[in-house]
Specification:
alpha/beta, Rossmann fold, Helicase, Ruva Protein, domain 3, 3 domains, five-stranded parallel beta sheet, 19 helices, 51% helix, binds adenosine-5'-triphosphate, binds magnesium ion
Length: 449
């Protein structure tokens, strides 16, 4: 940050001292406002938005401490330096205890003293800003945990391979299979320097989706009080993640197709054409080809998005690897809760491997996390799962279907149980770790009442 962007307000009712401080700091290149009345300082906080206030401690109407409290309640990031006469250094020390950065004495023995303490605040704030920036960059782009590729090793190779290119990627997978995680991984491995920008096409109301994506100019519509940068623009040099892409309205599909074709777009209410080099990763849990056949999704857009399709298998198709996946997840989650468990018994492993996991890894994580929390001692208890499993076996004794039938009945029973236990569909979906939409779909599919 250049020094002229570092803004300081000096408050002192003694005008000669006020002038002296203002002059020294202006000569240093800072932007400085001197005021003799603390109330005026409070009034201009929002419009001037200072980084630092240097204030006399003893003033007639509002003292320095009161002023600091008033300002910090509006903007906690503002730093304070207190001005004090020699006699009241004790007060200055207590001011520092209550949150002031430092103090200087009046009269000023040496201008250098002032320069140094102000440059310390300047340095501290610059560092803070940089850290915040770095943090938002890395936590945004980086996958939160190590991805377990057991049972989908091809997918690891595909992910690596495609990350290195600029190709548009389409991720197919049921809820909780790791689409978002893989999208972040692709962004991370691509080495792109811009942000990872997430757009959930199902969560944003249709009429807002366009302005979210492309932004708007001030006055583009009622309520557009200032210019807004869209996600497309934000994702320059980065990645745009279009989650639940099947849910885009036909109108937006058309706009989006154009943006994808020539990499240009306009903010709403603007005639200026902007370009973007954002990498596109889309995801869906629907059968896109089917939607195209039913004319619910534009064929041309589908082919633009489906350049590099990646299928993420559901957990029940990674059966052989479930023990390995479970052990890893137990290790991570128990460490998070400061616990340690002895290895799972064979029965438990079998139970976990047999279950159909409609909510995939998310559901597995949820069940393990709840189990870790309630388990005492070294044995990990899985009461939730045991109950579901027993219920299913009872049901199975009557039936005795093929393997596919087993899975379906397992899943159906799990859903029925969750619905009874939770009372509402929303809560049941949460308990199962699946989206409400997936739950509704399954309820219909199995004819659950
Ligand atoms: N292969 C994996 N390795 C480790 N953790 C995984 C893996 N796949 C998914 N997870 C974890 O499971 C949870 C769900 O993953 P994610 O959110 O990526 O799924 P999703 O497919 O995007 O689901 P949705 O369709 O509901 O958005 C996350 O906590 C994620 O960290
Ligand atoms: Mg997701």
């Amino acid at each position: 940050m250049p020094r002229e962007n570092f803004k300081i307000i000096v408050v002192d009712d003694e005008s000669s001292f006020l002038l002296l401080l203002t002059k020294i700091l202006e000569d240093e290149g800072y932007t400085v406002k001197g005021v003799s009345d603390p109330e005026v300082a409070i009034e201009i906080i929002d419009s001037f938005s200072p980084n630092l206030l240097i204030t006399d401690l003893k003033m007639p109407k509002i003292d320095g401490i009161k002023l600091m409290e008033a300002v910090k309640s509006r903007n906690a990031d503002v730093d304070f330096i207190m001005i004090t006469a020699f006699a009241t250094v004790d007060t200055a020390v207590s001011a520092m205890k209550s949150g002031a950065f430092d103090y200087i004495t009046k009269p000023l023995k040496d201008p250098e003293q002032l320069r140094i303490v102000v440059s310390k605040v300047y340095g501290k704030q610059a560092l803070l800003r940089e850290n915040r920036f770095l943090k938002s960059e890395t936590t945004q782009g980086m996958p939160p945990i190590k991805i377990i590729f057991a049972g989908m090793e091809d997918l690891l190779a595909e992910t690596r391979e495609v990350a290195a290119t600029d190709a548009t990627v389409m991720l197919y997978g049921e809820t909780g299979t790791g689409k978002t995680l893989i999208a972040k991984t692709i962004h991370h491995l691509s080495g792109r320097t811009g942000p990872f920008v997430d757009i959930n096409c199902a969560a944003i109301p249709e009429n807002l989706l366009e302005s979210e994506m492309f932004g708007y100019e001030k006055g583009a519509f009622t309520g557009a009080v200032s210019r807004k940068i869209g996600k497309f623009e934000l994702a320059n040099d980065g990645t745009i993640f279009l989650d639940e892409v099947s849910e885009m309205s036909p109108a937006l599909q058309a706009k989006f197709l154009k943006a994808l074709q020539d990499r240009t777009f306009e903010r709403l209410g603007s005639l200026i054409t902007l370009t973007t080099n954002a990498r596109i990763v889309a995801a869906t849990n629907r059968d896109m080809k089917g939607l195209v056949d039913e004319k619910k999704f534009r064929e041309d857009l589908f082919y633009r998005l489906n350049v590099f399709p990646i299928n993420i298998p559901p957990l029940r198709e990674r059966k052989k690897h479930i023990p390995e996946i479970i052990n890893y997840i137990i290790k991570i989650i128990s460490a998070r809760h400061g616990k340690e468990f002895s290895p799972l018994s064979g029965d438990k492993i079998k139970m976990l491997s047999d279950y159909s996991w409609p909510g995939n890894i998310r559901e597995l994580e949820n069940i393990i996390e709840r189990s870790v929390i309630i388990s005492r001692g070294y044995e990990l208890n899985l009461p939730e799962l045991t109950a579901m499993y027993e219920k299913t076996n009872e049901a199975e004794d009557g039936g005795g279907d093929s393997c596919g039938g087993d899975l379906r009945s397992l899943e159906k029973t799990a859903i029925e149980k969750a619905l009874i236990k939770a009372g509402t569909r929303k809560k049941a979906a949460e308990a199962l770790g699946i989206s409400l939409r997936t739950l509704q779909y399954k309820i219909k599919e199995y004819g659950i009442r």
